[in-house]
Amino acid sequence: MLFAAPDSQTVAQALKVLEHYTRGAKAWFEDEEQAWIKATLEQRTDDTALGVARLVFVRDSATSTTAQLIAQTTPMALHGEAGRRRRASVRAATADELKRVVARGSRLTGGRISSRTQVDASYVFDILFSELLEKGADAELLPPLCNPAILDSAADLTTLSYLHEPAVLYNLRRRYERHDIYTYSGVVLVAMNPFSPVALYGADEMARYARSSGAGGAATADPHLFAIAENAYRGMVNNNRNQTIIVYGESGSGKTTSAKYIMRYFAQAHHADANDVQMSTVENQILATNPVFESFGNAKTTRNDNSSRFGKFLDIKFERQRQRIVGGRIRTFLLERSRVVYQPPTERNYHIFYQLLAGADASLRAELHLDGEFATCGAFHYTSQGGPGSAAIAGVDDAADFAVTAASLDTVGISSSQRGDIWRTLAGILHLGNVSFSGTESTGSFVSPESEAPFAIAAALLGVGDAKLRQWLTKRQIVTRHDHILARVNRTQALVIRDSIAKFVYSRLFDWILGPINASLLPTAVDESQTSFVGVLDIYGFEHFEHNSFEQFCINYANEKLQQNFNHHVFKLEQDEYQREQLASWTFIGFQDNQPCIDLIEGKPIGILALLDEESRLEQGSDRTFTEKLYRQFAEQQQSIASAGYFRKPRFSNTAFTIRHYAHDVTYEGDGFLEKNKDTVPDEILDLLCASSFEFVGSLVSASAVPAKSTD
User: Fold this and answer.
1) Which of 290, 304, 384, 507 is catalytic?
2) Does 535 participate in catalysis according to the annotation?
3) CA nearest 21: which of 46, 41, 48?
4) What angle do CA 391, 396, 400 make, to 5 degrees?
5) Three-state secondary structure call for residue 144
6) Are strands 122-128 and 115-119 parallel, antiparallel or unpaired?
7) Which of 212, 256, 594, 692 is catalytic?
8) Tens of pLDDT along 471-496?
9) Dihedral angle, C-alpha 230, 234, 236, 238, nearest 10 °
10) Residue in 115, 251, 290, 500 annotated catalytic
11) Nearest alpha-carbon partner for 309 in 558, 555, 675, 663
């Protein structure tokens, strides 16, 4: 028999699952416009003989009366003439009616008999008891319940009675409307960007969290960045264990500013403990690194006017005995080198270029040929690709910021002459970007007559000979067993060589700056064996644009690894502890394990990165053959490779691929992957730069002279 009567145990267990779904209970329902909306349970009828419950919810925003809405939700086909006379009646469906539900197909997944019907502002659920008791079925068959009103705007999400997506989003929204931009989720602080200045980071706020004490310490105070910083500091002092704060999130969410305030807290908050209200030299230097790295590593993007285009890890070293800052060390990685030579519409190059053009004095401008026709950012290819108006940022004075950057470079130990070398190198990159090429496939390329002036300036500023630079921009050397052959390159290839020089020199300059900074932050007199540290990791967030390339792929891969770390600490380790403690009133909280996505990217020998490296080594390798290899390996073998389910070939493209990331599906354009992965500079160009008459540029190219190398 298809619908056997349920036994008493099934009925009891089902009613237990439904015990919180009583008249007046509120639940969440998905909505296309508002994401989630509330509805109230107006009627519930249980048929224990048949083993079916009917629940009728009415949307809170509905304007009709409850009786009218319930009448709308009672399908005429389900209750015949009696129902026509009493439309507001709600009862469980009969076996024949359930058979008709099966015949027309369930609206729920898995082919279940239970169904949900929506009519205007109301929802009707017919739920079979036996299906309700299947593992995980309650979350699929029943709408998530709302938390009691008393828990609205809870400061810690873990205190909510029901912890699911709509409950989290609703609680965060209510707090945001109250201008509470911080919320705890256990050991995690959720920060929402206010997109306007807020008075939350003054000396009084610092002092309040620095003085916090008691059973929970700063964790018992209002949610705040300073509470996280103070807990890390106390964990280091009390437990004698190094600590790390990870700052990550979507692009534009405020990570850079958050990391900046955390660093300021460590530098300033505990001077009262040491009876020293003045910051030490090292503490000043740590704070001075912020404007330096923002100038050289941040840029305006479509999501953020001050987006970090690199990752940074700062460990602040404290003397164990007195708990005062005695040093620090910075490591950088994943600098977005392509931004030096290309910016999408409305975006900018790195801030430092605009600061130099706006803030250099007359003598410096004349020395670097940044006057006359080259006086504005619109005069340079590398600073004008964002289009008209892209160079301006509301509320930002590039000239004033140039002065701040110069002063900060001085604070971190970069001398006046070294700063002059930096400005000259940047100007050389700008002028190099204005060099264009003419020619045909048969004749090869040559420097265009109209760009002879910027070519000569770039060569002079970089300290390389005109003839040699001209030769290796337009020719390449092929080495055979018995000879060296000079081959012409076409116009496109010449532009690639030009851009590779600019990217290489800038990335080496960025790396070089790190050397003097770390030398200043960590004096040789500091005995690291007698120190503990608190680390701050600031990495650019998950990115999903209209057009995504190799840069977004690397960024999102790094964020997948961070998300895995988050899952491990927030879900796995916490729930493992609950199990060890044998907590009675706790049910397992499921979470999406992103390991298959990580395996797809980094797996060996057939992960995306492994296949990319393999294709990059092939003489005839191309972006097209790379994406075709991905299609064959993943899109056509969904059943045999577990991680392949996270890969998809777009329907209308033969050069792109889509990855199902933890945050969003992202489609990457395969064009340019191989070139950006190799990112090579011809040996002849390296030799030319090494022999530069400008000693600073020559030192940048020498690997031994680079104090700290970025991962790129």
Assistant:
1) 304
2) no
3) 41
4) 105
5) coil
6) antiparallel
7) 256
8) 999 998 877 667 777 888 899 889 99
9) 180
10) 251
11) 555
